[in-house]
C-alpha cells in the first residue's frame, strides 16, 4: 500500500471530526490526538518489529514480550481499582498467562519459536488478558461495594475471607469471561478477526489463516478463564487484614 | 478502649477510652444517639474492627489473642437488616455449619425454635419479610452455639408486632442458653424491658452505666436525664 493511499484513509478521521464538531460533541481534539498517536505508535512498532524479525535474536524477542507485559500491566494498574499491592499481582498474573500460553503453543509445536510468531501471539494473548483483568477488577470492586453486608455476615459467623469472597469472585470471573465467550460465538458471522483479515489481505490461504485464528481463539478462551482465576486468587487477600477484616476503601 | 476512623480531614474519634465490664449471663443494652459508637463496640467485641487503643477482653483473653474464627463463632453478631445470602432459607440456616463443617441440628427443629414453619426452608431467602429474615439471621447465628450474642438494632427496621416477636425470641434464647447479650437499641422501652444493665453512650463516651432499673428511675448524670426526656438525640446526632 502506497503512502498516498494510506493518507486517503485520513478522510475517515476528517469525517469523525466534522461530525463531532457539527454535533458539538467536543471530541475533535481527542480524535486528532488518537489519530496522531496511533499513527506514530504503529509506525514505530512496525520499524521495531521489522528490526527484531530480521535480527532473529531470542534476546530481542524476550525484551519485546517483557515490554508488552509491562505496558499491559501499566494499563491495568493506572486505573483506580483501590486494591493495595495490585502491581505485583497483575505482573505475576500476566507473566503466568504468557508462560502457560507459550509453553503450550511452543511445546506442542503449534507455532514455531521465532520472533515473528512469539511476539504477535504474545501481543494478542496479553492484550486480551489486559482487557479481561480490567473487566474482572471493575466487577470485583462493584460487587464488594454492593455485597459488603454479605461478606460481613460470613466473616461474623467465623468464616474465612476466602469463604466470604467465593460468591463474589465467582460472579466477577463469570462477568469478565462473558464478552470473550460471546465474541467467540459470533466470530466469522459478525466480525472477521483482525489477524485473519490481515493474513488474507496479505495473500495467505484463507483456510490457513482460519487455522491460525482458531489457535488464537482457543488460547484466548483459556487465558480469559486463567486471567480472572489467577488475578482473583491473588487480589482478594489484599482486601482483608490479618484479622480477617474487610479493609476495602471505596 | 478507643477507636478512630480516618476521614478526609484527619482522625475522627468514634470511641474515647471506654472502660466497662459485661457480667457473664447478663443482658446489657446500649442506648444513645446515632453515631455515639454503640455499633462500634459490638464490632470490636468480635474483631470485625480492631481497637486503636486499649484492650477488649473476652472470657479472659484479648480479642487479638484469640483465633479470629473461633472468637467469631464464640461471639455471634446479628446485624440490623438481617442480611440474607443468595439462596434458600435452608442455605442460609446451614451457612455456619457449612463454613465450619459442623454436624447440623435438624433444620426443622431450628425453624420451629425461631417460630418459622418448616415449609419455608425451600423458599428463596430474599422473599421473606423483614421479621422472618431477622428470625432466620438469629437462627443462623445460633447454629455456631455462641456463648455471647451481639445484637445490633435487630428490631429497629421492623414493624412493632414483628419487633416484639423478635424481642420475645431473643429473651427465650437467653433463658434457654444463658448467653451473655450486648444489645444495641434505639427503643428505650425495649431497653427497660429486656436489659439487666444499661449503658448510655454519646459522642464516643460512656456517659453512664447502671443496672437498668436505676438507670431509668434514678439517672445520675444530667446528660442521661436530658437524654431520657428525649431532649438530646437529634442534637447529639448532629
What is the fold's blueprint, element by element?
The complex is a heterodimer of chains A (250) and B (238).
Chain A: H1 3-8, H2 10-22, H3 28-55, H4 58-78, H5 86-107, H6 115-146, H7 148-156, H8 161-185, H9 194-201, H10 206-235
Chain B: E1 3-7, E2 10-15, E3 27-31, H1 38-45, E4 57-58, E5 61-62, H2 68-74, E6 75-78, H3 89-93, H4 95-100, H5 107-113, H6 130-142, E7 148-152, H7 160-177, E8 180-184, H8 188-194, E9 197-202, E10 205-211, H9 212-217, H10 222-228, H11 233-237
Helix pairs in contact in B: 6-7
The greatest interface between two protein chains, and residues involved on each side, is: A-B, 17 and 27 residues
Mean pLDDT of chain B: 91
Largest sheet of chain A: none
Task: Spell out the CATH superfamily of chain B.
Answer: P-loop containing nucleotide triphosphate hydrolases
Low-pLDDT sequence parts of chain B: 234-238
* CATH arch. level architecture of chain B: 3-Layer(aba) Sandwich
Transmembrane segments (chain A): 44-69, 90-111, 117-137, 214-236
Family (chain A): Belongs to the UPF0014 family.
Protein name (chain A): YbbM seven transmembrane helix protein
Main location (chain A): membrane
Amino acid at each position: 500500500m502506497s503512502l498516498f493511499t494510506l493518507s486517503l484513509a485520513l478522510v475517515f478521521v476528517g469525517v469523525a471530526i466534522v461530525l463531532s464538531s457539527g454535533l458539538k460533541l467536543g471530541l475533535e481534539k481527542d480524535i486528532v490526538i488518537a489519530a496522531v498517536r496511533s499513527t506514530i505508535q504503529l509506525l514505530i512498532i512496525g520499524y521495531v518489529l521489522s528490526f527484531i524479525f530480521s535480527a532473529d535474536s531470542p534476546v530481542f524477542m524476550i525484551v519485546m514480550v517483557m515490554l508488552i507485559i509491562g505496558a499491559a500491566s501499566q494499563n491495568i494498574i493506572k486505573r483506580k481499582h483501590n486494591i493495595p499491592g495490585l502491581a505485583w499481582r497483575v505482573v505475576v498474573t500476566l507473566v503466568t498467562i504468557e508462560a502457560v500460553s507459550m509453553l503450550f503453543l511452543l511445546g506442542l509445536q503449534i507455532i514455531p519459536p521465532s520472533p515473528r510468531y512469539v511476539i504477535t501471539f504474545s501481543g494478542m494473548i496479553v492484550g486480551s488478558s489486559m482487557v479481561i483483568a480490567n473487566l474482572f477488577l471493575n466487577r470485583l470492586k462493584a460487587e464488594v461495594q454492593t455485597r459488603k453486608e454479605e461478606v460481613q455476615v460470613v466473616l461474623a459467623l467465623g468464616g474465612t475471607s476466602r469463604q466470604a469472597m467465593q460468591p463474589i469472585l465467582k460472579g466477577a470471573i463469570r462477568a469478565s469471561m462473558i464478552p470473550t465467550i460471546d465474541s467467540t460465538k459470533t466470530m466469522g458471522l459478525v466480525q472477521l478477526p483482525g489477524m485473519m483479515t490481515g493474513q488474507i489481505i496479505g495473500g495467505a490461504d484463507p483456510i490457513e489463516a482460519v487455522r491460525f485464528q482458531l489457535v488464537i481463539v482457543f488460547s484466548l478462551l483459556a487465558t480469559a478463564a486463567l486471567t480472572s482465576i489467577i488475578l482473583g486468587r491473588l487480589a482478594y487477600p489484599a482486601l482483608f487484614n490479618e484479622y480477617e477484616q474487610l479493609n476495602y476503601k471505596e | 478502649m478507643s477507636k478512630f476512623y480516618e476521614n478526609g480531614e484527619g482522625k475522627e474519634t468514634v470511641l474515647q477510652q471506654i472502660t466497662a465490664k459485661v457480667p457473664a449471663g447478663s443482658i446489657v443494652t446500649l442506648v444513645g444517639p446515632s453515631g455515639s459508637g454503640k455499633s462500634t463496640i459490638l464490632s470490636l467485641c468480635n474483631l470485625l474492627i480492631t481497637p486503636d487503643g486499649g484492650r477488649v477482653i473476652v472470657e479472659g483473653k484479648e480479642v487479638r489473642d484469640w483465633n479470629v474464627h473461633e472468637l467469631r463463632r464464640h461471639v455471634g453478631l446479628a446485624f440490623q437488616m438481617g442480611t440474607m445470602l443468595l439462596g434458600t432459607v435452608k442455605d442460609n440456616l446451614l451457612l455456619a455449619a457449612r463454613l465450619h463443617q459442623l454436624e447440623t441440628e435438624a433444620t426443622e427443629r431450628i425453624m420451629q425454635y425461631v417460630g418459622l414453619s418448616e415449609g419455608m426452608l425451600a423458599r428463596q431467602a430474599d422473599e421473606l419479610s423483614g421479621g422472618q429474615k431477622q428470625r432466620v439471621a438469629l437462627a443462623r447465628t445460633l447454629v455456631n452455639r455462641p456463648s455471647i450474642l451481639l445484637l445490633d438494632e435487630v428490631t429497629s427496621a421492623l414493624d412493632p408486632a414483628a419487633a416484639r416477636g423478635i424481642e420475645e425470641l431473643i429473651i427465650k434464647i437467653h433463658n434457654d442458653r444463658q448467653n451473655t447479650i450486648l444489645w444495641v437499641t434505639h427503643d428505650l422501652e425495649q431497653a427497660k424491658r429486656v436489659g439487666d444493665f444499661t449503658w448510655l453512650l454519646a459522642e464516643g463516651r460512656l456517659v453512664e452505666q447502671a443496672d437498668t432499673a436505676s438507670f431509668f428511675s434514678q439517672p445520675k448524670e444530667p446528660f442521661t436525664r436530658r437524654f431520657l426526656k428525649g431532649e438530646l438525640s437529634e442534637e447529639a446526632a448532629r
